[in-house]
């Protein structure tokens, strides 16, 4: 035939499956529209009658002779169809059942990881589940079926580990997808050692997703060699590049202020900023700076804390003394049953130890006297004055710390708290000058009960030195006050006071949009309501704090989420305003998330799990810290159900 003649293609003939072929040749149409033999399950490539007939006569001639065309064959084919449907139903049930078991396995593995528990707890949980179910479902008719389901749960240590890694990977993918869409993000970086003395860099990112502010662990980066600034920078850059996150999206970096982080030439910050093609905001964690300000006391006041820790250790560290001391407190009908140990990792530990020590001072003196242990400072009025001064000051610092550590705080709100505390320090100095001591209740009580002569000048000077330290610090934040305040108070914003260099803002468009926003009541009224909502939130915080309702305090809606919802309700025609607002909302106020992650890291990789490899440690930590939810249905479908081993 001539090459120009088009060859006939069966797919061009639009052939369709004919219903009568089922009775004639025992074929049905499958989900893909192709003919499938009911007898041998073979699938043919085309809906062509001659192909079906050839298959039936050559491969199933005995079936054709046993059931000739007519009623006999019709009934035989119907039976084949029923059998096919039953088999399909059983298969679908098995697939769904297997999927459910997998999802349940993922859920248990997720709970194990979120609580920092070892992988081996999977079998322990399964055993508890089975034993409890024996009684829980005793009167159920399908008890055996329920128990079989539980026994099918794959929860071996290896399975839990694999599930944890898969969920962590799924969460990372969700993080990356959201990060692709943002125009600005901030990073917080800190370094600490795990139980094996491996240096681990905690890299957190903060950004604004479509659902609100996110503060996420992007990676826990192990440093196998040195921990110089360039080593930290290389690890962070490698992590960002691995996830295809452009460094130019970074608008701010927050660190703990260590030399390896802030060195002028070879510090992490200086190396990273060289890679970024625009100006960025670099600052020292607000909470770290506040802690450094608190260390401005004279050496003799600092020695008070050291002696308190020494005395506590004398009592608590010795098992016999500790046991006898607790019995002694019971006999004395003391308010407290024990002392507290000082933990340098916990921010509020120092104030709590001092406060408990002050409450038990009389009992401690009596106990040490009984044991013949002599600490002359405990009877020295000057030392006692410094001790009660420390009790009161650390109480005030603890209140500030609690506010700075609240989840969802904006950087502007944190700075407001710091400035407010600066002014309180001036008030405290005046309190000493007036010799009223109303803000130092422990010192005042000691003065009244013992008629002590308080060294007013000494304590006033200590307070003023601390205030000077506060004033010297936080300068990078003070310079950006107007910009940081914009997210809460755009209606009172002055364009000339805003810093646009960090955020790639079209200033002309920004000015026009801000003017429109201020003059359109529909949109400006939203920010009036925002202030009312923030006032209500602050009132609730104060009420719950004063009532020590810490759980209720945690359940309150977060400040940054309230602000986000307001800005998110503004139309995208105000894109430059929203761009600045979301960029400012993405700024970290502290490295507290990093600090918390190290506490979790030490819980996960403990002395009993010191062989946990870095990849698995990161997976566990990500599941423990993330606000994302892994897509369990997707993960389950990617796996094949199998029983525990």
Automatic annotation (TrEMBL):
Domain of life of the source: Eukaryota
Database matches in Pfam families: Dimer_Tnp_hAT
UniProt domain HAT C-terminal dimerisation: residue ranges: 556-622
GO molecular function terms attached to this record: protein dimerization activity
InterPro entries documented for this protein: HATC_C_dom, RNaseH-like_sf
PANTHER family (UniProt xref): DUF4371 DOMAIN-CONTAINING PROTEIN, EPM2A-INTERACTING PROTEIN 1
UniProt protein name: HAT C-terminal dimerisation domain-containing protein
